[in-house]
Amino acid sequence: HVNLLREISPREYVSLLNAGIEGLKIESKNKRIYPNNTLASHILGATDIDGKGIAGVEKKFDNQLQNGSDVTLSIHAGIQHITRTLLLDQIKRFEAKGGAGIIMNAKSGELLSIVSLPDYNANNYNSILNENLFNKATKGTYELGSTLKLITAAIAFESNLINENEVFDVSKPLKVSSRTINDFHPLNYAINIPEIIVHSSNIGSAKIAEKFGSSTQLKYLKSLGLLNVLSLEIPELGKPQVLMDKRVLSTMTISYGHGISITPMHLASATATIVNNGVKVEPTLIKGKVEKKSERIISKKTSIKMKSIMRLVVSNENGTAKKAEAPGYLIGGKTGTAEKINPAGGYFKKENIVAFTGAFPMNDPKFIITIMIDNPKGQKFSNGYRTAGWVAAPVVKQLVTRVAPILGVKPQLESSSKFSNNLLNFKIRGKNHGANL
């Protein structure tokens, strides 16, 4: 036999029947249709011309789907659409190359939204051969900069090797081997751990890491899942790339997000564990998945300290994520701005990866938000800035404002006793504190 056509319209079907051509056989076959076109295309994946799953959920659950069993995803279509729309708008405003956005349940790990941009129409998967098919949220690995300082602070509190009231001199650049570690906004006085995170001091973070050492650092990175591929239910998963030489310089740079490349999904998962009273959170795409194990990574006491600091990064006048503040929703998190890695070696000095990871509401975190934007360009309205505070943080404010009502999170007063009883009140000194010293 010879295949004449693979697909015909209903009208063509009727015409062929009426033609009565001998030896012509018309077969019916099932075909997967994606009515929402680009929505969650990287997660849904695709099937080949024979209906076999070749990417995404379609590939992971091909046998189950072929046998007629349903797979119910945790992705919320409305929240997915909002995340995609707001992220795409910001990418266009800053003329960026692309980006990723994740919203996840902070306790169960259920993923409500996973966006990777640019994306594609899932109905046209087999005709697309460009980078649009690449999932930046789960497959792409990036140095996500100062967002990793959250992990450094958590290790410091948890290791008992550093007194929480200990201060670190950040007034001078830190020279290690042939490298000089600087701060974007230098401070001329010694600061403690909360101040290191709020002011996002590379020098302070490096000095903290030097005290707890490489072995402790790698132990916690491993326990947080940052050294291995995640167990998410799609095949497009990236493996972290981490400097494992245990040199002092490597330990220091990893502390502020250089020398460690992870996926945005890894960052979201680690953030969830930190704010979930220290109990490990495994991301999942399956709605209602029951996870029996309960692995504690850090103590509840450390988690409370971290939630308090993350809130200050957004709410304090000295914080780097002030533009993420959405009154009433108690957002907390951490920004990160890192130079892009040059595949030929070194870094691109004028190209950045910017990111934000955090949660809301911080007195009882229910949802994680992680944003990554690839190579934004400074704009007139941003005074030429292209840092995470200008690019990623505003997306978070818009996102929370839009999705909180859908998620049933009501605005609350930060002065309420319910809020103040759950977080610590760290004092953060301003940039001019030591001006006269």
Describe this protein's structure:
The protein starts with 9 loop residues before the first helix and ends in a 17-residue tail after the last helix. The protein contains 14 helices and 13 strands. By secondary structure, it is α+β, with helices and mostly antiparallel strands. The chain is about 30% helix and about 15% strand. Strand 6 (about 175) and strand 7 (about 180) form a beta hairpin.
In short:
The chain has 437 residues and is an alpha+beta fold.
Features:
two-stranded antiparallel sheet; 437 residues; elongated; 13 strands; alpha+beta; 32% helix; 14 helices; five-stranded antiparallel β-sheet
Which residues sit in consecutive blocks of at least 5 with pLDDT less than 50?
Answer: none
Helix content: 25-40%
How many whole angstroms does the radius of gyration measure? 24 Å
* Gap between N and C termini: 90 Å
Alpha-beta content class: alpha+beta
Strand order of the largest sheet: 4-3-13-12-11
Contiguous helical run count: 14
Helix-strand blueprint:
Elements: H1 10-19, H2 41-44, E1 46-47, E2 53-55, H3 56-60, H4 62-66, H5 77-93, E3 98-105, E4 111-117, H6 149-159, E5 168-169, E6 174-176, E7 179-181, E8 190-191, H7 193-199, H8 202-223, E9 241-242, H9 248-255, E10 260-261, H10 264-275, H11 300-315, E11 332-341, E12 347-360, E13 367-374, H12 388-391, H13 393-407, H14 417-420
